[in-house]
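The instructor's notes for this session suggest beginning with a concrete chain rather than abstract definitions. Hand out the sequence below and ask the class to guess, before any prediction is shown, which regions might be ordered.
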Amino acid sequence: MNRNKKRKKLSRWRLTLAFTLIIFTVFLLTSVIVAAILFVGNHFGILSISELSNSLPSLLYLALFSILVGTLLSAIFSRIPLKPFNEIITATDTLASGDFSVRLNLKGTPEIQKFTTSFNDMAEELGSLEMLRTDFVNNFSHEFKSPIVSIRGFAKMLKYNDLTKEERNEYLDIIISESERLSQLATNVLNLSKVENQTFLPSPKVYNLTEQIRLVIAMAAQKWSSKKVSFDFDCDEIFFYGNEELMNQVWINLIDNAIKFSPANADIHMRLKRQSDTLLFTIHDNGPGMDKEVQKHIFDKFYQGNPSHTGQGNGLGLTIAHKIVTLHSGSICVYSSETDGTTFEIKLPKPPNRE
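After discussion, reveal the predicted structure:
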C-alpha cells in the first residue's frame, strides 16, 4: 500500500515537472527572442535601448510584443504535451461508437505508457464481451426458435383427419415435450440472469446440505427409476452456510445430467465429505464422456460441442451451476473421458463456527 502511494506521488511530481519545464522553456525562448530583436535593432540603429528605457509607450509595445511571442510559442509547445490527450480523446470516441478494434500506441512517460496498456486491455475486454453478447443472442434465438417451429409443425399436422390414434398421440407427446423444453429454457435464462446480476450472496443461512441432496434425488425418482439407475451416495451429515434455493439448482442440474447421460442399469456415484477447510462433493456417471475441447467450454453459455453429452439440454444448466458455486466462493470442475465417464467436483467453504 505504501509502495503504491509512493508511485502515485512520484507520478504527480513527474507530470508537474514536465509542465514546469515546458512553461520555463516558453518564457526562456520568449526572453531570448525579444533580447535578440532588441540587440539586432540597437546594433543597426533601428531601435535604441536607452530610448526604450525612457519611453513608456515603447515599453508597452515591447510588453505586448513579448506577450504575442510568448503566446505563439505556448501554442506551438502546448501541442507536444496535448498530443497524447488528443489521441486518447479520439480513441475514446471511437470506442464509444462501438469500434472495439481501436488501440493506442503512445510514447512518453511511464505513466502514459501504463495508461496505453490499460486502455488497450479495456478495449480488448470490451471486444470480447461484445462477441460473447452476440453469440449469446444468436444461440438463444436458435434455441428458442427450434421448439417453437417443432410445436407449430406438429400442431398443423394434428389438423389432418386421416391420422391414426397412435400418430396423434405421438404428435401430442412431441408438442408436450417441446413445450416443456421451451419452459425449461425460459426458466434457465431467468435463473442465469438472476445469478449473473448478483454481486453478493443473498439470504445466506446454515442448513442441512446432505438432506438437501437426498431430497433432490428423491424428486428425480421417476427419471432414474425408469432407466433403472441406482445411486451410491457416500456422505457425511454436513451443514452448509449459503443460499439454500440457489444451491438446490446446482444439485438438480448435476443429478439430472448424470441420470440423463447414464446408460440403463448403471450406477451413479456421489460423495460428500469434509476436508481440512472445505466441503468436497463429487458425482460420477458412466455416460459417454467428453473430450478435452468440450471440457474446456462445458460451463460456457449455450455450449453444446458434444451432441452425445450435451445435445439433450440447452447448454445453460452447467453455466448456472458454475455461477452459483462461484457466488458461494467455491469451485466446480469436470473430469471426463470416453471410457471412464464423467465426474463433476465441487469444493465449498466450510461454514464458520459450525461442525
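Then share the key points. The beta strands are 205-208, 230-235, 239-242, 267-274, 278-285, 331-337, 341-349. The chain is about 65% helix and 15% strand.
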